[in-house]
Amino acid sequence: MGFYPQPNDWSCGPFALKHALVALGRMVDENDIARRAKTHWWSGTDEIGLARAARAYGAELELFRRRSAERARRDLIAALRERLPVLLCVDGWGHWITVLGCARDQFVIVDSNADPVLDIAPWPRLRRRWVYRDTDYDPDDPPELYDGCIVRPTNRVPMRATFSVARVRHLRHARNRDLAEHWDEYLGDLLAICRPRDQRMVAPLSMAEFLRRHGDLIVSRVVYWHGDVTTAHVSRLLRNFRFVAERYGLVIPNAVARRAIADLAILATMWAVATRGIGSLYGAGE
After folding, report:
1. pLDDT averaged over every residue in the chain
2. Where does a domain end: 115, 133, 164?
3. Is 185 in contact with 4 (CB distance < 8 Å)?
4. Structural domain tally of the chain?
5. Do residues 190 and 10 touch, judged by C-beta distance below 8 A?
């Protein structure tokens, strides 16, 4: 359920909504969204179906239409500054994409019909894809339409992701493909270890500070006991956890720091076994 391409030509709507919900800290499978939205292979998904699915996951779609490119750009930026993801109907009303952030007219988009799906689109390129010229209304001088949906949670959400242009460039590297594709797995495990930052917490540890204090211990123990995984391998896994945690502002309460050490060491060990295998142990596996 991470950031990976859609498997067919008609499931862009469920993928776009899934990516928006992930930005709001909600992990939902695109197949469940398609079922709720009543997605069809011959017609895809319209905004009514997406709105119905969004309500099932605690969000509302605020549909909007603008007839001015500049007004559409301003309203899009205003929503993104609220850290609200926006679904855009693009490519002649034939495709849905998700916009997650912006900086200086550079927009972070998730396009499930591309590979990699995460991209950075300058405003002129995004505008060309977004605009729909309604020739049915006036074939000689068609009006320009810009349609989209702001995804707004119905209840207060404790965390929202921040996808900056720089961080998305990092995710787009081929070496980080596994992180992007398994984003939801990282987030799900982190939510069992960390908490969203809260003003009532007393001196919580950011993931960066936690790993500065305890990362070497975790890495050394996993490498020692597994034997066939390197320090670089485990360190990279921990950096992935840090990257995801920082996008959502997740922290570790001081009171559970010792448990978090154990949790991350266990996760890293299971990952080492999954990637590098393991021989027989205490008679098991012979």
Report:
1. 93
2. 164
3. no
4. 2
5. no
268 and 233 in a common domain = yes
Provide the whole-model pTM: 0.89
174 exposure class (CB count in 10 Å sphere: 0-12, 13-18, 19+): exposed
* Dist CA 153 CA 54 (whole Å): 9
Per-residue confidence (pLDDT) for residue 1, from 0 to 100? 57
Q: In this structure, are residues 44 and 13 in contact, taking their beta carbons and an 8 Å threshold? A: yes
Give me the count of residues in the chain. 286
Tell me the average pLDDT across 148-163: 90
Amino acid code (one letter) for 63 = L
Of 110 and 135, more confident = 110
| Structure-token pair, residue 176 | 């980080």
Could you list the residue range(s) of the whole structural domain that residue 189 is in?
A: 182-276
pLDDT tier, 237 (very low <50, low <70, confident <90, very high otherwise): very high
Beta bridge partners of 86: 99, 150
Domain final residue pick, 114, 129, 164: 164
For 116, list phi and psi in degrees, rounded to 5. -70, 155
